[in-house]
């Protein structure tokens, strides 16, 4: 059974940084695309960024570009989301997902990020 587990969420002040992790079991993340998404209360889930399989080309949503870095540790089978210069509007539940491009088939349970002003 493939499982993803996010961790690292919490409360941070605006302007601060936070790092999230997405650890996988039952699947080698480096052979699939891993995406990060977020959902704020009352809003639809939105794409944050992703890292491709193999060499790991990254893609970032415009709303977070320049403030986040997605990376992967193949030895730990874990993908990371480093967020800097956080804003209150970054408050959301953050999810990681794994699958083929545009076909994420496995999702984590999410981790809450709260950015205080």
Give the topology, please.
Layout: E1 3-7, E2 10-13, E3 18-25, E4 33-39, E5 46-51, E6 58-60, E7 68-73, E8 78-83, E9 92-100, E10 103-107, E11 111-116
Parallel strand pairs: 2-11
Antiparallel strand pairs: 1-3, 3-8, 4-5, 4-9, 5-6, 7-8, 9-10, 9-11
Query: Radius of gyration, Cα only, in angstroms?
Result: 13 Å
User: How many individual β-strands?
Assistant: 11
Strand content: over 45%
Shape: globular
Spatial gap, N to C terminus: 40 Å
Number of helices: 0
What is the residue-mean pLDDT, rounded to a whole number?
97
SS-derived structural category: mainly beta
Describe this structure in words.
The protein has 117 residues and is an all-beta fold. Helix content is 0%, strand content 56%. It is built from no helices and 11 strands. The strands form 2 sheets. Strands 2, 4, 5, 6, 9, 10 and 11 form a 7-stranded mixed sheet that branches. Strand 7 and strand 8 form a beta hairpin. The radius of gyration is 13 Å and the shape is globular. The termini are far apart. The mean pLDDT is 97.
